[in-house]
Automatic annotation (TrEMBL):
The gene is Hip1r. It is found in: Cytoplasm. It comes from the Eukaryota. It comes from Calcarius ornatus (Chestnut-collared longspur). Residues 7-248 form the I/LWEQ domain. One of its GO terms (cellular component) is cortical actin cytoskeleton. This is HIP1R protein. Its main location: cytoplasm. InterPro entries: I/LWEQ_dom_sf, ILWEQ_dom, Sla2_fam. PROSITE patterns: I_LWEQ. PANTHER family: HUNTINGTIN INTERACTING PROTEIN 1, HUNTINGTIN-INTERACTING PROTEIN 1-RELATED PROTEIN.
Amino acid sequence: QELRPKSLDIKQEELGDMVEKEMASTSAAIEDAVRRIEEMMSQARNESSGVKLEVNERILNSCTDLMKAIRLLVTTSTNLQKEIVESGRGAATTQEFYAKNSRWTEGLISASKAVGWGATQLVESADRVVLHTGKYEELIVCSHEIAASTAQLVAASKVKAEKSSRNLAKLQECSRNVNEMAANVVASTKSGQEQIEEKDTMDFSGMSLIKLKKEEMETQVKVLELEKRLEGERVRLGELRKQHYGLAGGCEDAPEDGEARPAPAPRRGILKKPPIAQKP
């Protein structure tokens, strides 16, 4: 008990209720996501036409397929958890089983939250893309996050499941289906983005030589600025992931105030001149 990380502020006897609550909340979030996508589809058909309507329909259809795959995944995961509890609790109650296996239970809660959050973020990103106020890259990132959250949920469920369990085999199949549907969202988003950009291609035919040269120089400056910004964002992403993994894992060495400690600078070795070989 002393070695357990203080990651949750709830009592152990409440863990079982938390699992059921989070799974129900995730299911409700997915149902709401499906409903919102249907509303966006209807709105897109009324307010857009041509290429934009074709792109929006393709993206929203792929998002709908992904939501349906996630809904089946959550249902199967819930059935597997019930099977695990019934086969492993013995004479103990369900609450006692969850409390005894608190680390596993916390993993299920975290994974369920991640799946529900990913589904909500995907719908919000799709809404902004359809309204032309968001970025296509947001949809791609959300799809990757959903795939990662799905893997987390399957791993948490698989820990205590019997290898011969039918529900486990079905859950793994659902996970592969979610990954496939997430890949379809990425593909439809990228193709839609390219299709829209091709439509809005700039026409340089009416520019003079001086104007073309000026545009070329300004574009080169912008490319350099974007490359520098990309490098900085990659460094920031790496630091965010380090902090995330540290907090999620309950690292013992992490400071209490939650701030990351800077790594000590490596000492430079003293460069010595190699000895001169002596004659035999």
